[in-house]
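Hello forum,

I keep getting stuck at the same step: I have a sequence, I want structure tokens, and every attempt I make locally crashes halfway through. Rather than fight my setup again tonight, could one of you with a working pipeline run this one for me? It's a single chain of 247 residues.
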Amino acid sequence: MSRKKTRVTGVDALTEAFDAVDHAPLLASLGVDIDRDLLILALTHRSFANENGMLPNNERLEFLGDAVLGLAVANRLYELYPSSPESDISKMRASIVSRYGLADIAREINLGEFILLGRGELLTEGRSKESILADTTEALLGAIFRQHGFEVARDVVLALFHHKINHASAKGIHQDWKTTLQEELAQRRKPMADYQTTSVGPDHDLVFTAVVHLEDVEMGRGEGPNKKLAEQEAARQAFLKLREKRA
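Reply #2:
Ran it on my machine without issues. Output:
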């Protein structure tokens, strides 16, 4: 009679999950080394930590990384746009360091495949969720700051966000992507976009996911704290894909 395999938990589960992935490509994308223990902490989402005996998670590092990111981007915008008023560069910074801006960077470095997630998040495509990608990006920046100090962390930020910073727009944060997408479709004489939105979680903390289809083909998927923001992100992704196809 075979014995049921005992599920590994706690620190052993953490070590096993971390060692199952080669982190060299991630560190190469960041352009800096991070000590093993600090890297493990930065990649540990609370869902994994909670499922394995309430291990430490990356939320404290995320807090630090958010501050490092904000200052690095603000200072660079201050230097690049000396004649812009505070209101404009503030909007630029908000657009760059938004959840969606951070998630874009996370996807560029394939961060999702390195995040340590609990089974629930894995089953709901947690590796592609904007919130998880954005938070983990900030946690990595916090880890870099803790190990190397602000100047190195700033240089990593400026390298990762170089394109976004140099193409910052004061109006980008307020753009109506659903209208922009529809105008693009009308110009191409295509049918209207079809949005399907679902939500999960308790009533006080719902997470909405919107999927936009163009002629029955999924072109964008967005997540947000309400239906409007989720659909705006889905529309943004669809619009950018259309533009890529035309380029």
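The chain has a mean pLDDT of 89. If your local run keeps crashing, start a new thread with the error log.
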